[in-house]
């Protein structure tokens, strides 16, 4: 029996996201402090005659398992880049626990998990830098999701600065069940050339340091997203009022909102509060992953 390989695909949280420049190609340069929560999709791979994908889980409905799925696109891209190193066919099964089009990098994290599986089965080692270059061709968030550790992302997401330290913190994440298209949010963005993120404290080890820093930042995509989905603004206010919440904000282009907490108990109590108020929303509480690779 050949043992299956399992990779987790953690949820990405943009603690801050500044849009700093609109490029001539229509894309935007960003600066974002990104962390990853210990809630995730799971991708399992076993040897097969050819590559294939099946999907299950609470958010599997409506997801295609064909060649346009980001998981299979990542596998195909790896095989095209390193045909001599690629493993034989893989039967892949994705357990989709994270909501889709939610601003927490679900599809990008799944693609990154597929790249890590391919690299782990390759005939020779593939460097993280080379793998990150390939990841950037699949989507702006895929390079960050490849590392799945606290970092600052710049450019369109391909320039990564992993943080050597990060305080132990917890998040409560809430999604109102409304898919938000990133392109729709950017079309409603008024200012395309905003100031950069302030310099981070070094080392960043205490929650108070992060809290002060976050007060000087924002998510530039939040105002246009709130106009599209007013529930986002309501949830931000709800979380901000829960005991112990350091700050609340939208992640990515939405519609997922998060509250940041110093204790696990406070995060879970906030999640329980939201579940009581909005039982139909997806809500979870989790620790932020350690910086260790």
UniProtKB/TrEMBL annotation:
Positions of the GHMP kinase C-terminal domain: 208-279
EC identifiers of the protein: 2.7.1.148
Molecular function GO labels: 4-(cytidine 5'-diphospho)-2-C-methyl-D-erythritol kinase activity; ATP binding
One record GO biological process: isopentenyl diphosphate biosynthetic process, methylerythritol 4-phosphate pathway
Residues that coordinate or bind ATP: 99-109
Signal peptide from the UniProt entry: none
Reaction(s) this enzyme catalyzes, per UniProt: 4-CDP-2-C-methyl-D-erythritol + ATP = 4-CDP-2-C-methyl-D-erythritol 2-phosphate + ADP + H(+)
Record-linked InterPro entries: GHMP_kinase_C_dom, GHMP_kinase_C_sf, GHMP_kinase_N_dom, IspE, Ribosomal_Su5_D2-typ_SF, Ribsml_uS5_D2-typ_fold_subgr
Keywords (A to Z) from UniProt: ATP-binding, Isoprene biosynthesis, Kinase, Nucleotide-binding, Transferase
Active site: 12, 141
Domain GHMP kinase N-terminal positions: 69-148
Enzyme category, top tier: transferase
Superkingdom, taxonomy of origin: Bacteria
Pathway: Isoprenoid biosynthesis; isopentenyl diphosphate biosynthesis via DXP pathway; isopentenyl diphosphate from 1-deoxy-D-xylulose 5-phosphate: step 3/6
Function: Catalyzes the phosphorylation of the position 2 hydroxy group of 4-diphosphocytidyl-2C-methyl-D-erythritol.
Recorded family membership: Belongs to the GHMP kinase family. IspE subfamily.
Listed name of the protein: 4-diphosphocytidyl-2-C-methyl-D-erythritol kinase
Organism: Devosia subaequoris
């Amino acid at each position: 029996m050949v043992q299956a390989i399992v990779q987790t695909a953690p949820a990405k949280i943009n603690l801050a996201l500044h849009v700093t420049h609109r490029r001539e190609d229509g894309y935007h340069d960003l600066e974002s402090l990104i962390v990853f929560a210990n809630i995730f999709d799971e991708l399992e791979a076993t040897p097969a005659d050819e590559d294939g994908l099946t999907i299950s889980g609470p958010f599997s409905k409506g997801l295609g398992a064909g060649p346009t799925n980001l998981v299979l696109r990542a596998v195909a891209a790896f095989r095209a880049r390193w045909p001599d190193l690629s493993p034989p066919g893989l039967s892949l099964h994705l357990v989709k626990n994270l909501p889709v089009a939610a601003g927490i990098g679900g599809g990008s994290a799944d693609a990154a998990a597929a790249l890590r599986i391919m690299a782990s089965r390759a005939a020779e080692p593939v460097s993280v830098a080379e793998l990150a270059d390939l990841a950037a061709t699949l989507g702006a968030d895929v390079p960050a999701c490849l590392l799945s550790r606290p970092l600052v992302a710049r450019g369109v997401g391909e320039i990564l600065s992993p943080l050597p330290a990060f305080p132990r913190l917890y998040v409560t994440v809430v999604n109102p069940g409304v898919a938000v298209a990133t392109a729709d949010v950017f079309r409603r963005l008024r200012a395309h050339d905003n100031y950069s993120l302030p310099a981070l404290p070094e080392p960043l080890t205490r929650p108070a340091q992060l809290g002060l820093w976050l007060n000087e930042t924002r998510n530039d995509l939040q105002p246009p997203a709130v106009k599209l989905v007013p529930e986002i603004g309501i949830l931000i206010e709800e979380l901000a009022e829960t005991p112990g919440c350091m700050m609340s904000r939208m992640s990515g282009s939405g519609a997922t909102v998060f509250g940041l907490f110093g204790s696990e108990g406070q995060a879970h109590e906030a999640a329980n509060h939201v579940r009581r108020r909005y039982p139909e929303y997806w809500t979870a509480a989790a620790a932020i992953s350690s910086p260790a690779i």
